[in-house]
Design brief:
By secondary structure, this protein is an alpha/beta fold. It has 32 helices and 22 strands.
């Protein structure tokens, strides 16, 4: 019975299929008949439109019918078959595009929120709901990616072959200025159909960026201040975006997004009160603390000072452990801005690549703790950073490279690095503060630090400076110079008139930088920093720099002139570092100059090991450049080929007045009018051991008149002027003091007025020997 029922059902299904087939066959016959009638209506004079209309009705799936129709059309129109086949393909493509366009318009019109549609050839791309799909002509959807892309804006990287960078969201994750090629690397595991999938995703970015009113931002390469603030505080509404090429830059940029909060006036007052208390409780000498705080707050404006002052010095804190250096710098150099969680360790910074990454991150300061790297490449990198913003270049491929300016101010805690900023060339590149006492534990200070760390202190600075440009900074500095009324104005005016920069190169620029920071603290936080000893401390930070090199060089040269290799007493006195005399160049019986050769350089390096900081100079050119920088009259020293004993030698030619005048040159400035400045000068010099007061008996002896004839004779014949080095030191110290005091009764430190320096010493030592 069941078998009979199944046969009956199968029979019914068969009959239905037969009916459907007959119906379709009848329809096809009607279509074919209509098509044949249209073909019969064609002729050699038929228009292109009529021909395309007939071709568009040929079924795609019936190749036999297609071939028959092509032959029939050829007979009627006499058009070659190859041309007809090509025209048929074009017609079908047009039809397909029209169908896709109608479908695309319909989908966009009725799209749900968060769904986007883009065309790709004769396909439609659907982007949304955490997936990317492709829709074909038969409305079949194929999955291409396990994510969707919410594209926000585009930026052109003009420094990298105009690469297009996009900012977008993927699965609620924010991606900032990413190239399409980098995007493919990040999401390659979430793409289907390999190359086809990549083409689809690229098309999403390209089509989106072609839409009307799609935002295209101007690319910026400096994060921080560069003739205006460049910060990622509002990416959507900013007319720029910041292009990053390294992980260091991107990490800093992410932190900077959260560095600003809009505080109410009440909240600002609470922050100011807490910061004022914290500064008051800080166990560091007030003068040094002023420089540290002023430096840290003015550091983001480094680019202005480099462009206008050609200088932004490093801040180096050295001294005993447990002095509070690291805690202080961690707060005011890191937590104050919030651009880093921690300082950079000295070990990390010893890698040139890592250090250069840090130097290109932003204009906010970078704190390096316990930096002890003394490699030449590192020291040279820091020297260059203090006076310029040269580009750091790195290859990203065989044909591409990134180029970023080195823009980051450096704050260093170190017990060693300060030694490498003690010669004439490096001196003006750093403020070195020495700490000699340890700090005790202050629980309240620690509580205040933790409380203020949770605040966004930079917000108050930004509110005050958000509209600043370079011209505004210049006006602000001019205003800052008058912060204490006439006293500071008078100091600056007198500084410019005096020759203070002979002793302290670029001290005026440093003073202005610190005063600008002091004034900014007053304006932003209503905190008065102690500036009474600011200039004094800046000069003290330079105590063993320019003076030290020139003083030691002159002392060595005088000893080398006096050295006599045939005199046993002279040999025993200088055997530690001398075995060559400093020869004189004589013309027509007159001393012209001294010739400093490579042999003398070797002796000078030995001298520095014994009496200096151990620094060695590799060439005469290197040493001469440093001496010229520190010398007021740049013509007194030259390096080149000279004749000595009828032989050509590469040497440094030193004019006699440089050797005999030493490092203090006569100044017409009336320092006695500068009571405050004069006291700071003398106190600084005394504490730096540059001036050592001698006893009255010795002072009287040095004031005696010496016959000029003996001096000339000694110079021409290179007689043995055996001199005790300590006597030379005393002579230089005494004359330096007299020059600074501008005492008209003191012996001039000038060969033109009193050509008796060497003979004075000769007479004293001769009398002593007798």
């Amino acid at each position: 019975m069941e078998i009979t029922n199944k046969k009956q059902k199968n029979g019914e299904l068969y009959e239905k299929d037969q009916v459907i087939e007959k119906t379709e066959e009848n329809i096809n016959r009607k279509i074919i008949s209509a098509l044949e009638e249209k073909v019969k209506g064609l002729s050699e004079t038929s228009k292109q439109e009529n021909l395309e209309s007939v071709l568009s009705e040929i079924p795609v799936s019936d190749i036999i019918l297609e071939n028959r129709m092509i032959r029939d059309i050829k007979k009627k129109t006499n058009i070659p078959i190859n041309y007809l086949r090509k025209l048929l393909i074009d017609v079908r493509n047009k039809n397909r595009v029209n169908i896709v366009n109608r479908k695309f318009v319909s989908l966009r019109k009725n799209a749900n929120k968060g769904i986007e549609y883009f065309k790709f050839n004769d396909l439609i791309i659907e982007n949304g709901n955490d997936e990317i799909l492709v829709i074909d002509n038969n409305k079949i959807k194929t999955k291409i990616a396990d994510f969707s892309v919410d594209i926000l804006f585009k930026t052109i990287d003009v420094q990298n072959n105009d690469v297009e960078l996009f900012t977008f969201y993927v699965k609620k994750t924010y991606f900032y200025n990413i190239s399409i090629s980098r995007f493919m690397k990040i999401f390659k595991d979430k793409l289907y159909k390999e190359s086809f999938g990549r083409d689809i995703v690229k098309n999403v970015f390209n089509e989106k960026s072609k839409e009307p009113n799609f935002p295209v931002k101007q690319g910026k390469y400096i994060l921080g201040f560069d003739d205006g603030w460049i910060l990622p505080l509002d990416d959507i509404n900013n007319d720029y975006s910041i292009i990053c090429h390294t992980d260091e830059q991107m990490n800093v940029l992410k932190k900077c997004r959260k560095m600003y909060v809009e505080y109410s006036p009440n909240e600002k007052k609470i922050i100011q009160k807490q910061l004022k208390e914290m500064i008051k409780r800080t166990q560091i000498p007030k003068g040094q603390l002023t420089i540290i705080l002023a430096y840290c707050i003015i550091a983001p404006f480094r680019s202005f000072f480099i462009k206008n002052f050609f200088l932004f010095p490093h801040l180096i804190l050295e001294g005993v452990t447990r002095a509070g250096k690291s805690s202080l710098l961690d707060f005011f150099g890191n937590d104050f801005y919030g651009h880093y969680d921690n300082h950079m360790s000295g070990g990390t910074a010893s890698s040139p690549a890592r250090l250069e990454d840090a130097l290109t991150a932003s204009t906010f300061p970078r704190v390096i703790d316990e930096f002890t790297d003394d490699k030449e490449i590192t020291i040279n990198l820091l020297k260059e950073l203090a006076t310029s913003s040269s580009d750091y270049k790195r290859k990203t491929s065989a044909i591409q490279q990134i180029s970023r300016p080195k823009i980051t101010p450096i704050i260093i805690s170190s017990n060693k690095l300060g030694n490498y900023f003690k010669d004439a060339a490096n001196n003006a590149r750093a403020i070195v503060l020495n700490f000699t006492t340890t700090a005790s534990t202050d629980m309240r200070w620690g509580d205040l630090k933790r409380t203020l760390k949770s605040k966004k202190l930079f917000s108050l600075v930004y509110d005050y400076t958000k509209n600043w440009r370079n011209d505004d900074i210049q006006d602000f500095i001019n205003e800052a110079i008058g912060i204490k009324g006439k006293s500071v104005k008078q100091i600056m005016k007198k500084l410019l008139k005096t020759k203070i920069e002979i002793q302290y190169p670029r001290i005026i620029e440093m003073y202005k930088i610190i005063m600008a920071g002091v004034y900014l603290y007053k304006k932003v936080f209503d905190i008065e920093l102690d500036i009474k000893n600011t200039l004094l401390i800046l000069m003290k930070s330079r105590r063993k720099t320019l003076e030290t090199l020139l003083e030691k060089f002159v002392t060595f040269c005088r000893a080398a002139i006096a050295y006599n290799p045939t005199d046993s007493s002279s040999i025993s006195r200088y055997y530690r570092y001398l075995d060559h005399r400093l020869e004189a160049k004589v013309k027509k019986g007159n001393l012209i100059s001294y010739v400093f050769t490579s042999n003398n350089l070797a002796n000078f390096n030995q001298y520095l090991i014994k009496f200096g900081d151990g620094k060695k100079y590799s060439s005469l050119l290197e040493l001469s450049e440093l001496l010229i920088i520190g010398c007021q009259n740049k013509k007194l020293i030259k390096t080149g080929t000279v004749y000595l004993n009828k032989e050509r030698v590469w040497a440094m030619s030193i004019e006699k007045e440089f050797i005999e005048n030493g490092i203090v040159e006569k100044s017409r400035a009336n320092l006695t009018d500068l009571t405050h400045l004069r006291e700071e000068f003398l106190n600084t010099m005394k504490k730096s051991s540059f001036i050592t007061l001698q006893d009255e008996k010795y002072n009287k002896k040095m004031k005696k008149k010496i016959d000029d004839e003996d001096l000339k004779k000694a110079e021409v014949t290179n007689q043995d002027l055996t001199v005790d080095e300590s006597e030379i030191k005393k002579k230089m110290n005494l004359e330096a003091e007299h020059a600074l005091k501008n005492d008209p009764n003191s012996p001039e430190f000038n060969l033109g007025k009193d050509n008796n320096n060497l003979d004075k010493i000769k007479k004293k030592t001769s009398k002593k020997n007798d």
